């Protein structure tokens, strides 16, 4: 028996924040990108939970910058950055070939926002750790050990 997919054509509402892509499939792909609970973030959370480090808050809005993982009582925050969107210093990522000015501005704003978030947290006495997607994929255990060693210093 031949199966057919019921393909529904989506209409994407343009809000002016991004240029219209040359290929329609680009909009579909971009709409699936998550801002929270990404694979690297979930992997890190599960690993630190498995090591017995519990009691954290996810995307806690009361902390400056809304860290991905935070321990409010100990003022300890963790950010998990995607290599592409936050422009990882370890990966040699290419720039998009179309709308170069838009993407360069976008990436610079993302990097600036990341720095402001960390500055705001540190100003209020928070300790921060930032993990890159590639670091978590390459050596999750090392990332967990960094969290554990920092958490022991903060008595979490």
Structural write-up:
- With 156 residues, the chain is α+β, with helices and mostly antiparallel strands.
- It has one domain: Endonuclease, Chain A (3-Layer(aba) Sandwich).
- Helices cover 44% and strands 11% of the residues.
- It has helices at residues 24-31, 39-50, 83-86, 100-123, 133-138, 140-154; strands spanning 57-58, 69-71, 76-81, 127-132.
- A hairpin with a 4-residue loop joins strand 2 and strand 3 (76-81).
- The longest helix is centred in the last third of the chain and has 24 residues, at 100-123.
- The protein starts with 23 loop residues before the first helix and ends with a helix.
The low-confidence parts are none
Number of discrete domains = 1
**Principal-axis shape:** globular
Q: Please identify the top-level CATH class.
A: Alpha Beta
**What value does the Rg take, in angstroms?**
19 Å
Separation of the first and last Cα atoms: 58 Å
Biggest β-sheet: count, sense, barrel? 4 strands, mixed
Structural class: alpha+beta
Strand share of the residues?
5-15%
Number of helices: 6
List the strand order in the largest sheet. 1-2-3-4
Q: CATH topology, anyone? A: Endonuclease, Chain A
* Assembly level: single chain
Arithmetic mean pLDDT: 84
Secondary-structure element string: HHEEEHHEHH
> Can you say what the CATH homologous superfamily is?
VSR Endonuclease
> Roughly how much helix do the residues carry, as a percent range?
40-55%
What is the annotated CATH architecture? Answer: 3-Layer(aba) Sandwich
Q: How many strand units?
A: 4
């Amino acid at each position: 028996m031949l199966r057919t997919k019921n393909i529904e054509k989506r209409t994407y509402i343009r809000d002016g924040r991004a240029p219209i892509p040359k290929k329609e499939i680009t909009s579909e792909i971009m709409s699936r990108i998550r801002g929270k609970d990404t694979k690297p973030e979930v992997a890190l959370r599960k690993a630190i939970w498995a090591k017995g480090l519990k009691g954290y808050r996810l995307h806690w809005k009361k902390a400056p910058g809304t860290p991905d993982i935070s321990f409010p009582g100990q003022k300890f925050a963790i950010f998990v950055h995607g290599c592409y969107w936050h422009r990882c210093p370890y990966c040699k990522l290419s720039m998009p070939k179309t709308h170069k000015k838009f993407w360069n501005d976008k990436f610079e704003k993302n990097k600036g926002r990341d720095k402001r978030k960390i500055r705001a947290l540190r100003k209020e006495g928070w300790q921060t750790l930032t993990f890159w997607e590639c670091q978590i994929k390459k050596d999750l255990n090392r990332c967990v050990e960094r969290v554990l060693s920092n958490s022991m210093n903060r008595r979490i």
